[in-house]
Amino acid sequence: MRLHADHWTGHEIRAFTLADGTRTVLDADAAVAVHYGVRTRTIELLRGRAWFDVRHDPTRPFRVEAAGSVTEDIGTAFEIDPHADGKIETTVESGMVRVSTREGGQSITLTAGQRAVWQGTGQITRQGDVAVDTVASWRDGQLMLTAVPVHMAVSTIARYRSGMTLVVDHLDDLPPVTALVDVRRPDDALGALAAGTHLRLYHLPGNIVLVRRSG
């Protein structure tokens, strides 16, 4: 991954500016490859979640490719969020983007507060609108989990830990969770999650945490 990526993160959130002035923030465990040419600007999202505030240039379209989806800037700030099931979600903070498939065909235009999901089969569907001040809230260390399966909540928080987080029990039958997580304090967040979801944490040397069901 690092041989192919131009920018990547470990357990931290990283902000930087691309050569054209586009501001970018990568979530923890994310990576992008940058392909800039005379007439094109393409970002390949290799892993994880990213936010872009694009320096608009009508002579050099700005595109983000993630799996089979393509999001093209029409002067905007937006978030790309790959889901665990392979779907790609695009949410617009300001301005406008066009979401399409790499193979062409269906496309959809989104404006501020709107979002859409590329399904992995080439289909793109609109989702419910969101408040623009909640888009990519993880940039400021606050991550909202809404009706998320427990095992996904654990893996999400684990991205921000410097040590390994190992789940050693089956968690799929536990009720989904909704929580506001402070990713700057991932161990506290993991402890709060465990307290509310019948989990037990075992802290081992080397900052390793084992996650098991309690009882």
Low-confidence stretches: none
CATH classification, class level of the largest domain: Mainly Beta
Distance between the termini: 40 Å
Number of strands: 19
Instruction: Give the topology string: H per helix, E per strand.
Output: EEEEEEEEEEEEEEEHEEHEE
Structural class: mainly beta
Strand numbers in spatial order across the main sheet: 1-4-5-7-8-11-12
- Strand fraction equals over 45%
Mean pLDDT: 91
Report the biggest beta sheet as strand number plus sense, adding barrel if it closes. 7 strands, mixed
Question: How would you describe this protein?
Answer:
By secondary structure, this protein is mainly β. The protein has two domains: 7-134, Jelly Rolls (Sandwich), CATH 2.60.120.1440; 141-213, Phage tail protein beta-alpha-beta fold (3-Layer(bab) Sandwich). It contains two helices and 19 strands. The strands form four sheets. It has a seven-stranded mixed beta sheet, with no helix packed on it. Strand 4 (31-36) and strand 5 (41-47) form a beta hairpin.
